[in-house]
Amino acid sequence: MWQVLSKELNTFLNSLIAYIVISVFLTGIGLLMWVFPSTSVLEYGYADMETLFSFGPYVFMFLIPAITMRMFAEEKKGGTMELLLTKPLSDWQIIIGKYFSGWLLVCFALIPTLIYYFSVYALGDPAGNIDTAGVIGSYIGLLLLGAVFTSVGILASALSNNQIVSFIIAVFLCFLLYSGFDSLASVDVWGRSSVILEQLGIIYHYNAMSKGLLDTRDIIYFLSVIAVMLLITRIILGSRRW
User: Fold this and answer.
1) 76-117: per-residue pLDDT in tens?
2) Nearest to 106 by CA among 162, 56, 174, 50
3) Backbone phi, psi, residue 15, to 5°
4) Which has the closest alpha carbon to 202: 227, 231, 223?
5) Chain center to CA of 101
6) What global pTM score does this model have?
7) Nearest to residue 151, comparing CAs of 54, 234, 53, 73?
8) How far is the C-alpha of 8 from the C-alpha of 66, rounded, in Å?
9) How far apart are CA 182 and CA 202, in angstroms?
10) Phi-psi sector, 240: left (phi>0), alpha (psi -120 to 50), beta
């Protein structure tokens, strides 16, 4: 697993894609938080980071599939998948190694946003007038959300040997998991079942964590989705020996 993890991280860090993706994420979030009047903290007048945690998931929907689309698709298209599978590594070691390399890159992209927290902290009136517990809960939620989207991206990459197709599938699945169930639940045909349908979506659990309340049920939900996505990826790899 560590061999795959190290190889994937080195590949990312030695190519422009990692730096471009992280730069686009930070630039986009920075513009939303500090420049655009409709979402700027300076215009809003409240010391919070709602802009980051509200728009971050939607940026992740495109950022993370761009990171993961090459994971298996490139290996299959380049003919190196057979070589990878002949190494003394199990399918799970390959999957987990690639998964954590993608998720670590997402974590690296989030680290610079801590500057936004300290900026808002200093701009508060009085200084420090910010819901730190809520910010911590939101960051944990965003990290878990990134972990889920990474597992979805890994699955999408295993489904196709075309990176663009993998990217499109991953974006669609991320959107469906994040807000698709919530949108379906809002349709007035489900009755009491709408609550259950809403709880199947990520946004319900993500919003709960954004309040600073870390409920084990929300954490278990995120971990369960990750496990299911990686299990399906394992089944796909096991059924296709290139």
Assistant:
1) 666 666 566 666 677 888 889 889 988 998 898 899 988 888
2) 56
3) -120, 165
4) 223
5) 13
6) 0.88
7) 234
8) 14
9) 9
10) beta
